[in-house]
Amino acid sequence: MARLPRLALAGHAHAVLQSGQGERPVFADDVDRAAYLHALREAMVSERTAVHAWALLQDEVRLVVKPEDAAGLSRLVQSVGRRYVSAYNRRHACKGSLWAGRFRSAVLEPGPTVLDALLWADGASVLPDHSSATHRSGGPAWPGLTNPAEFWALGNTPFEREVLWRERLHLGLPPHREQWLRKAVLGGWAAAAPAFSGAAAAAASRPSQPRPRGRPRAR
Question: Most buried among 24, 56, 115, 149, using CB within 10 Å?
Answer without folding.
Answer: 56
